[in-house]
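Hey L., structure's done. Input below.
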Amino acid sequence: METPEISLTTICHGGVPEVFERELKEVLANIADPNTAAEKTRTRTLKFTFKPTEDRSGAAVDFSCRASLQPVKMVKSQMFLSRHSGQLKAYPTDHQQVALFGPEEMAKNLTAIK
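Output:
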């Protein structure tokens, strides 16, 4: 049997295509994520480093993959703090402000707006 030459599919024990497929899935998932910036680019860099032996009869090969994906978009919110029985608690709305609508009416109003 003839020994195969080095290629993209045989270098590093044949692991490069497997890493590429795995990393491509991660890029596609990041693109599809509505919480990331749609217009920004994503990159994957496959890097091969070749270190020749001193007698130049061969080389050591290192393979790495570097990612540059888009982070989740920042979302801002507020919280309101209050002390109850000496314990500090946080709320998404100001509990001291009088509510104009109950939870059911609020849900109806939100769906009517959409």
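Residues 80-113 form one domain. The chain has a mean pLDDT of 88.

-- N.
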